[in-house]
Amino acid sequence: MKRILVGIKRVVDFSVRVRAKPDGSGVVTDGVKMSANPFDEIALEEALRMRERGAADEVVVIGIGPIECQQQLRNALAMGADRAIHVQAEGMVEPAVIARVFLKLIETEQPFAIILGKQAIDDDNGQTGQMLAALWDRPQATFASSIKLEGDKAVVAREVDAGIETLEVDLPAVFTTDLRLNEPRYVKLPDIMKAKKKPLSILTMAQLSIDSAPRMKLLRFEPPAPRQKGIRVKDVAELVAALRARGLFQ
Amino acid sequence: MSKVLIIAEHDRERLNQSTAKCVTCALAIPDAEVTVVVCAADASAVAAQAASLQGVKRVLKLENAANAHALAAVLAPQLAALALEFSHVLAPSTTFGKDLLPRVAALLNIPQISDIMAVESATRFRRPIYAGNVIVTVEVAGAEKLAATVRVASFAAAPAGGNATVEARTLNVALPTHTRFVSVSKAQSERPDLQSAARVLAGGRAFGSAESFSMLYSLADRLGAAVGASRAAVDAGYAPNELQVGQTGKIIAPEVYFAIGISGAIQHLTGIKDARTIVAINKDAEAPIFEVADIGLVGDIFQILPELERQLAAQAAADRGL
Predict the structure, then answer these.
(1) pLDDT tens-digit profile of A15-62?
(2) Where are the domains of chain B?
(3) Does B145 lie at the interface with A, CB-CB under 8 angstroms?
(4) Is A249's CB within 8 Å of B223's CB?
(5) N or C: which end of chain B has fewer CB within 10 A?
(6) Among partner residues B114, B143, B250, which is closest to A161 by beta-carbon distance?
(7) In whole angstroms, how far apart are CA B84 and each of A65, B145, B146, B287?
């Protein structure tokens, strides 16, 4: 069975302007819209396309977090994933712990590819894929904007600061997605009904023998320093004068 | 004492300025002794540049033919072996550092803090989350070592004038061959680098086409500015991916940033908040970009840009006494 694992993280929706709680103990999440991490949806779309081209037989989505993550997993099944695994966890789960969960699941699932988002838009850590590749001792191709499977290898274009870097990696490997890899499909209503019948298994950290205790303490959450209120100018002449008044373009 | 190891970023010839910014961050750690490591096939030129940064005590060269390209899978085991002597391992929060450092941290089984923007103690740092809408103070408890990527827009570059010692190191580490470099696209212009430029002109969806977007290049060349783009402009194909500024692109801190036809989604704003002056030009007076702009001008970019180019040129001529 040629299998792909995809990580699906439940995060505050990208359109929400997240605010720190006034007492600094966390961020306001009550009543806030939650969604799958956008980079994870791109990861799932890529896996589904690989399966549709015949390069994979099964796409398994994995969510780690509270019971509510099952909503995002069901949505992933509606998008086309074959089955889901929910690993129960409360509170913040650090990237190193997520990486160890995947490493454990690799033992039984034996995937040829793991596709993850390059970062989650809540904690913006961007660590999990690289940590997993290190622990697994396999290649990593991060920030992918194109993945071409060629037999037991993959050729990957990566979005790097200089432009596009191309790597060749042996499979199995870990891939992390950048924005331009693909455009995820929309879920159709009949597929939502069908997804309810697809298998979703539930595991605990204890069953996987993983110590999920955090090693970092989040001490205080604050709003960023505000910028000073600016001015409006009415035309280009005023704009140039305002720039020069600030010591620019002199 | 904190023994800080900084992983140098370079293009084989020149040290990237992000490394000098990491040095400033490292020096903010109490009682820090700063070492820079340069991984390359031939590290001499870059090591000499690192040694000239003020505050650097030692530069280590890790030379190996396999280090000709910065492949995380190849560099990480070497850096993990080297890092055993250090308390902190830092890398810039550029695509180079973001790709590499988590792999090093995982091999060392140490925690990583991403995008540190301020140092509060040897184990306590501040970093942005939720696209910069929240700043969190993070403490690593009970660990002997930690890794961190440095948000380069938050630190000034360490100045030249240092005189560190340079040593070559050889490590007996098995290197994988499962990851191979194929190619990298080369920057096609002599324009300043987006991440270190003092002046940046960035364009958004309002340009409407790649041809219109190219107007920005001629003005940028006249002003000696780098060109940036919003995600919308990159997604639409007006600009290449390496120009994207924002949460998932580049985080920059120029002296002056022009947001031209960019509405200012929160994901974009987090990439420009550290600019000293933000100029917004947009025909929509309600665009969120105006909330963060120091100077805002409401109007049609296709009329304003040529006029701006003309007036700045006229001013420059007047300043030269012409």
Answers:
(1) 999 999 999 999 998 899 999 999 999 999 999 999 999 999 999 999
(2) 2-169, 199-319
(3) no
(4) yes
(5) C
(6) B250
(7) 33, 9, 11, 50
Contacts of A14 in chain B (CB under 8 A): 267
Rounded to an integer, the average pLDDT of A198-208 is: 97
Between residues 170 and 199 of chain A, which touch chain B (CB distance below 8 Å)? Answer: 170, 173, 178-180
Residue range B30-56: mean pLDDT, rounded: 98
CATH label, B199-319, candidates 3.40.50.720, 3.40.50.1220, 3.10.20.90, 1.20.1740.10: 3.40.50.1220
Which residues in chain A touch residue B71, judged by CB atoms under 8 angstroms apart? 167
Which of B7, B19, B121, B136 should one mutate to test binding to chain A, selecting the residue with the greatest count of A CBs within 10 A?
A: B136
Using only C-alpha atoms, chain B has a radius of gyration, in whole angstroms, of 21
CB atoms near residue B161 (< 10 Å): 9
Q: At what angle do helices B301-319 and A236-245 cross, to 10 degrees?
A: 50
Q: Residue B152: CA atoms inside 13 Å, Cβ hemisphere, count?
A: 26
Q: Which residue in the set B129, B139, B234 is minimally distant from A219, CB to CB? A: B139
Strand partners, A217: B139
Contact B99 A140 (CB under 8 A): yes
Mean per-residue pLDDT, A57-79? 97
In CATH, B2-169 is 1.10.620.20? no
- Give the pLDDT confidence score for residue B80 in this predicted structure: 98
Q: How many CB pairs under 8 A join A and B?
A: 257
CA B130 to centroid of chain Cα atoms: 19
CA dihedral B191, B197, B200, B205 (to 10 degrees): 70
How big is chain B, counted in residues?
322
The topology under which CATH files domain A3-225 is Rossmann fold (3.40.50)
**What one-letter code names the amino acid at A149?**
L
pTM of structure: 0.94
Q: Is A162's CB within 8 Å of B187's CB?
A: yes
In tens, the pLDDT along B72-97 reads: 999 999 999 999 999 999 999 999 99
**Do B2-169 and B199-319 have matching folds?**
yes
Most A-contacting residue of B13, B175, B179, B308 (CB-CB within 10 A), to test interface: B179
**Is B195 a residue whose pLDDT tops 90?**
no
What residues does each domain of chain A span? 3-225
Contact A119 B102 (CB under 8 A): no
How do residues B266-288 score in pLDDT, each as one tens digit? 999 999 999 999 999 999 999 99
Q: Write the secondary structure of A38-69 as one string of H (helix), E (strand) and C (coil).
A: HHHHHHHHHHHHHHHCCCCCEEEEEEEECCCH
Residue in B with minimal Cα distance to A232 = B296
The residue with greater pLDDT, A248 or A130, is A130
